[in-house]
Amino acid sequence: MIKVGVFGVGHLGKFHLNNWLEIPGVKLMGFYDPHHENAKEVVEKYGLKRFTDADKLMDACDAIDVITPTQQHFPLCMQALRKGKHVFVEKPITHTIQEGRDLVNMVKEANVKFQVGHVERFNPAYLAIKHLSLQPMFIEVHRLAQFNPRGTEVSVILDLMIHDIDIILSLVKSDVKQIAASGVAVMTDTPDIANVRIEFNNGCVANLTSSRISMKKMRKMRLFQKDAYIGIDFLEKKTEIIKLKQPEDQNVFSFDMETPHGTKSIAIATPSIEPLNAIKLELQAFVDAIANNTPTIVSEIDGFLAMEVAHQILDKISSTSILV
């Protein structure tokens, strides 16, 4: 039985609580949250013990789950690592680059399991294409959200775009060559909408647009590679694959298209998407890594690299951003 303590039971923290209670082999020892209203609600609804001392909750646990504001990630993770506890922490991994570097080094020394909550890695629309040979050379991303004061303590880059940065870095097996970015602060003191172009050494180019002041929601990624186009709709949980038809492609819609190089047979596939709970999947993956002593799917290094690129983007924006 893995004993887990939850740090932060706000909006997202409650989703984590609900899922922890459904994962076998886990015992929730309690939670820590300095906000009395949040704490009172959780005690009444879940019957969980509230700890007012972070140290005591950590001492009672094998692993902790950190869903606090970003500024609190580093001190809590550091405290847990020094106690030899396994850690799951929401994205972004830390508030500053130096904190991220320090945390990566501490995880290595502590020899524990550490996972970062980049939940889109577990989105069923994305999992539906994990079996494919993905070597994208052009990526286009739109992640749009309606304005919500919750989460605005960080920029739209660290709030929304970092999800796509993480996925792109996991797909493109190449170092970043160059970044161009522009952003606008509209409702807050940090960029609320941004457009970014990332060029990689292997020639791949990624264009990303993120906004938290849109009228409609959108979470789409389009991958273009030599043999295929793959569209992923993270919001609607849909995926489509358009590619040159191969002999093994059976039971897929196809049509012939005339090209300068002759007639090509085009296949269009829409993989079946299972109605999976991404948050539960990522927490289950963390538990499995602890139980089986295997690497976490989104490691501290993955989390740091995504945050490092995010901060490079912010540096670019700081010299060109427009304050409205």
Describe the structure.
With 324 residues, the protein is an alpha/beta fold. The protein has two domains: 2-117 and 279-298, Rossmann fold, CATH 3.40.50; 122-276 and 308-323, Dihydrodipicolinate Reductase, domain 2. It is 32% helix and 30% strand. The chain has helices spanning 11-20, 36-46, 54-59, 73-82, 97-110, 124-127, 156-171, 278-292, 300-318, and strands at 2-7, 26-32, 50-51, 63-66, 86-90, 114-117, 138-144, 176-185, 193-200, 205-211, 218-225, 228-233, 238-244, 253-259, 262-269, 322-323. A ten-stranded mixed β-sheet has the order 14-15-13-12-11-7-10-9-8-16. It is globular and about 65 Å long. The model has no long low-confidence stretch (mean pLDDT 91).
Q: Which percent range fits the helix content?
A: 25-40%
User: If classified by CATH, what would the architecture of the largest domain be?
Assistant: 2-Layer Sandwich
Query: How do the strands of the widest beta sheet line up side by side?
Result: 14-15-13-12-11-7-10-9-8-16
Radius of gyration: 21 Å
Poorly predicted ranges: none
The total of beta strands comes to 16
Largest sheet: 10 strands, mixed
Instruction: Note the total helix count.
Output: 9
Number of domains: 2
CATH C-level of the largest domain? Alpha Beta
Say what the CATH topology of the largest domain is. Dihydrodipicolinate Reductase, domain 2
Instruction: State the CATH superfamily name of the largest domain.
Output: Dihydrodipicolinate Reductase, domain 2
The global form is: globular
